[in-house]
Structure formats: structure tokens, C-alpha cells
Specification:
Number of domains: 2
Strand content: under 5%
Distance between the termini: 41 Å
Helix content: over 70%
Length: about 350
């Protein structure tokens, strides 16, 4: 080294080496999310197709013992579609059957809530809620054209959602029927030097994804049954639709169930008063404890163990990046990535020990 040449400490060399690598990884991640953002409908459709495959492939495998594989796939998918439409019909009939009673109870409940808010500690002035209702009516009347245009744009969103569901169902047909052969073909296209690692990573990813999917469906079903039975016993209207809402909300870990139960508490407050609403709030706490300390640990033991803080950060980050869809996809995505990392790390350790 020439005299006067500045020296670079080993720490700075290491930091610089990691810095440029992190910049490259960050650029790749940003590019990946940019591409997914442009084609997120396709990504969501493929994700839903994988979810359907994880749920229905075991059923199709059992049916395939009796009938040919193609017929087993068709029977499984058709039976599932009939089941889903049957549940939606049941919910629609429940709403239609309780509509008259529900309107009457809500009118009484709004007055009950207003009387309750006028007493301590709120001291709300008389007629505030009525004024609020009239202002809402005036707003809807004055902004009717904007609301109609919003509804039309919403209709376009419905078409997009139906398109994604159709693509998801179409993808699941091939995944269930011959997904293993498609994966084998993909592996054959890879260089031989990476084929073994991709095989190990793929097995770990699918094992984790199917485990998480089965587990989260079990959690959602148990939550929905508990909520539906409890609301039915308490006499809260719309118990079946609220149970279905709880089932769907449970797919967003940690925060989905409390939000759905908060909606149930509002319905109970308007229809049955503060006492029943308080019991529903207590139900939120009980079901939260069951979900957090019993059901979710079982799910994570089937898939991969993630700290609750990691789950919470993943859900929030996913919701910021892609809304509700991101919140649903975040935890299984993190679980799959971590399981692949763990499986490949074990392979490297085994290679070093040899």
C-alpha cells in the first residue's frame, strides 16, 4: 500500500458488500411487485385455483378410486359448487325471512340507542341521530348521479371478480386433474444442477400451503359455528349471515374475526339492546382466546410456526400493499417462503455434515 492511501476498514468493506446486494434484491422485489400489480387479477386467480386444489384434491383422489380421474374431478367440483350455492341460498332465505322483523327491530333499536346516548356519560342532544339520518338522506338525494356512476363502476368490478373466479375454477380443474404431471414437466425444463433443490423447495411449499389452507378453513368453520349458535341462542337477527361473515373474515388472521364480531355486536345493539350487545362483545373476547391459543397454534403446527408479531406485521403489510386480498394472501405467502428457506437450509446442513 502506498503511503497516504486511505484505508478501508473490514466493517466498511462488509457493509458495502451487503449494501449493493440488498439494493439488487430490493430492485428485484420492487420489479416483481410492479409486474404483479399490473397482472394482479391473474395472480389472484391462480392463488384461488391453488386454494381450491388444496381443498378438493384429497376429495378427488378418494372419488377417483371408484370412477375415472376426469369424472372424479368433475363430480368434486360440481358438488362443491352446489354446496356453495346452497349455503348462499340459505343465507338469502334467512335474510328474506327476517326482513320484516328486522326492519321493525332496527327502528325500535335506533330509538333505544338514541335514548341510551342521551343519558350519562354521553349526554347526546335529543334528535341528533334523527338529524343525522335526514342529512344522510339529503346527501343521497343530492349526489344521486355520482352514486349511480359509482354503482356502474362497481358493476364493472363485479365482472372482473367473476372473471377471476372463472379463471380460478378453470385453473383448479387442471391442477386437480394433473398438477403432479405439470410440476414434473416444469422440473424437466430446469438445469440439472438446480433440479434437486427446486424439488425440495416445491414439496416444502406445497406441504405448507395445503396445511395452512386446511387449517385456516377449519378455524373459520369452527368460528362460524360458534358465532352462529351463540347469536341464535341470544336471539340476534341475521345469525346465519353473520356466521357466514365470520367464516369469511377468519381468513384474515388476528383482525378478521374481531371486525366481523364487532358488526354482530352493532346488530345486537340495534335489535336487542345494550345487554345482548355486551354479551356479544364478551363473545368476541372468548372466541379470540380460543382462536389465538387453541386453533391457530394447531394451524401453525400443520403448516409452519410463525410468531404472532410476524403474523400481525404480514397482515398489515399485505393490506397496505394490496388491500383485503393482500391481507388474506400475506400469511400463507410468508409461511411458504419460510418453509422453503428452512428446507433448503436443512439440505445445506446435511451437505456440510457429509
Amino acid at each position: 500500500m502506498q503511503p497516504g492511501t486511505p484505508t478501508v476498514t473490514p466493517f466498511l468493506r462488509t457493509a458495502a458488500a451487503y449494501a449493493w446486494r440488498l439494493l439488487v434484491v430490493g430492485a428485484l422485489v420492487y420489479g416483481l411487485f410492479a409486474v404483479l400489480g399490473r397482472f394482479h387479477e391473474i395472480g389472484v386467480a391462480v392463488f384461488l385455483g391453488l386454494v381450491i386444489t388444496a381443498l378438493l384434491r384429497p376429495v378427488a383422489d378418494v372419488v377417483a378410486r371408484v370412477v375415472p380421474r376426469a369424472a372424479a374431478v368433475a363430480l368434486t367440483l360440481l358438488g362443491s359448487i352446489v354446496l356453495v350455492f346452497g349455503v348462499l341460498t340459505l343465507v338469502g332465505e334467512a335474510v328474506a325471512g327476517e326482513s320484516t322483523t328486522l326492519v321493525r327491530e332496527f327502528r325500535t333499536g335506533v330509538g333505544r340507542i338514541e335514548d341510551w346516548l342521551e343519558r350519562p356519560p354521553f349526554h347526546l342532544s335529543h334528535g341528533t341521530l334523527s338529524d343525522l339520518q335526514s342529512k344522510i338522506g339529503d346527501f343521497l338525494s343530492s349526489h344521486r348521479s355520482a352514486l349511480v356512476s359509482t354503482a356502474l363502476s362497481g358493476a364493472g368490478q363485479v365482472v372482473a371478480v367473476l372473471t377471476m373466479l372463472a379463471l380460478a375454477l378453470f385453473s383448479s380443474v387442471f391442477f386437480i386433474h394433473s398438477g403432479d404431471r405439470q410440476w414434473a414437466w416444469f422440473q424437466d425444463q430446469l438445469p440439472g444442477s438446480v433440479r434437486e433443490r427446486v424439488t425440495i423447495a416445491g414439496r416444502a411449499a406445497w406441504r405448507t400451503f395445503t396445511g395452512y389452507t386446511h387449517g385456516i378453513v377449519l378455524v373459520a368453520a369452527v368460528n362460524a359455528v360458534l358465532v352462529g349458535v351463540a347469536l341464535w341462542i341470544l336471539g340476534v337477527p341475521l345469525a346465519v349471515p353473520l356466521a357466514l361473515l365470520e367464516f369469511l373474515a377468519a381468513f384474515v388472521p388476528l383482525i378478521g374475526s374481531p371486525i366481523a364480531l364487532a358488526v354482530a355486536a352493532v346488530v345486537a345493539l340495534a335489535a336487542k339492546g345494550p345487554l345482548i350487545a355486551g354479551i356479544v362483545i364478551a363473545l368476541i373476547v372468548v372466541i379470540g382466546q380460543i382462536e389465538g391459543h387453541l386453533l391457530h397454534p394447531i394451524v401453525m403446527s400443520w403448516a409452519v410456526r410463525l410468531h404472532p408479531l410476524v403474523v400481525a406485521i404480514s397482515v398489515i403489510a399485505g393490506s397496505i400493499a394490496a388491500g383485503v386480498v393482500g391481507a388474506v394472501v400475506a400469511v400463507p405467502l410468508v409461511s411458504v417462503v419460510w418453509s422453503v428457506h428452512t428446507a433448503l437450509r436443512e439440505v445445506r446442513r446435511a451437505a456440510v455434515l457429509k
